[in-house]
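Subject: for your reference before the review

Hello V.,

The reviewers asked for a structural picture of the protein, and I figured it would be easier to keep everything in one thread rather than splitting it across files. Below is the amino acid sequence we used in the manuscript, unchanged from the supplementary table.
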Amino acid sequence: MGQFITFEGIEGCGKTTQIRLLATALRHQGHDVIETREPGGCDIADQIRAVLLDAKNNRMTSPTELLLYAAARAQHVAEVIRPALDAGKTVLCDRFCDATLAYQGYGRQLDIDQITTLNAYACQGVRPDTTLLLDLPVEIGLGRARQRNEQHSGPNEDRFEQESLNFHQRIRQAYLQLADNEPQRFLIIDAQGKPQTVAERIASAMNTIIQPVPSS
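And here is what came back from the structure prediction:
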């Protein structure tokens, strides 16, 4: 069975960059690594992603949003994550169930118990072994995210960046609470500073969790 490592955090915390850097480091150590993301990760889930993140869909209700995330996750787990783990690979995923608790539970203020049940149904027993929470002040993260979107030439995916500052502050506090609830799974990483500096913090935190693959 492989290892499942998820990256979580507010908008603009640098998850995508840090997943790429960690994947490179792990491959150099001999690990077979899969990089994926949520929502998305496979064709059907990517189509759902386009609907979820498009700023034009500003009339989407919170329950609709929640159910679409669950549908994308169910497909992603069945098609990508579980097969990779069964094959002994290391899976690095940009967001997973904790994001739904933070964004739809605490951000949208939907029922936490219902979200937990829905997550469990979508995941079919798949749970992260380790979750890296990239933490930084909301104002810094939103500034980074909006700058990134201005420079991005692809599909518009800034529906969440248009939410209020208070919404994003609730999400940051939710993540910190989730980490406090499960300290054995979460590693809180200071996401301020240059990408390489953050990568070094992650490498240090992961040092005892993932070891190099012995050469044959």
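For the response letter, the relevant points are probably these. The CA atoms of residues 90 and 170 lie 31 Å apart. Strands lie at 4-8, 33-37, 90-94, 130-135, 186-190.

Happy to draft the paragraph if you're swamped.

O.
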